[in-house]
Amino acid sequence: MQEGAADVSQVAGEVEHACPAVSRVDEQRGPAHMRRMSVPDAFVAPAEPTAAEAIATIGDELAVFDDWMERYQYIIELGRKLPPFPEVWADDAHRVPGCQSRVWMEKERRGGKLYFAGASDAAIVSGLVALLLRVYSGRAPAEIAATDPVFLKNLGLIEALSTNRGNGVAALARKLREAAALQAA
Known about the structure:
Blueprint: H1 8-18, E1 23-26, E2 30-36, H2 51-63, H3 68-80, E3 103-110, E4 113-120, H4 123-136, H5 141-146, H6 150-154, H7 157-160, H8 163-184
Antiparallel strand pairs: 1-2, 3-4
Helix pairs in contact: 2-4, 3-4, 4-8
């Protein structure tokens, strides 16, 4: 080995330590042959078996809090727990129109179900994205299309938000249902 040249296994360890989910050096083929490892799944898997159960659970969780400031904090925490959203999707092609903040979404069909990934540049909006994905992601397109976003109003979310944020949440819900309608067709 030349002086100053790094050992392949050392480089592999450093790359894996710095970016464990993105790349790894193939020790047998050397650093010139980088291979892409699987990126952590950005799509939200449903916690509840149906959209209706997800809505009921969200209602129960919000009811625990005495005021909207506590509910907002809870919603913000939900947003922080969203799976990491790949930066390559944070572009105009993935942007949801009609939102005051920047919101991005991606969809993927797996085994007859539609999964969504989402992110926002605003903490409260990320939480609202998390709520919507909890209801709609990982469901059959027919179930998504049949789940009216009126639950947002019934839970008091629309009234508790500014008009612009309320309109943005409604736009995101509409986009999720439109994606499902296109998949069902």
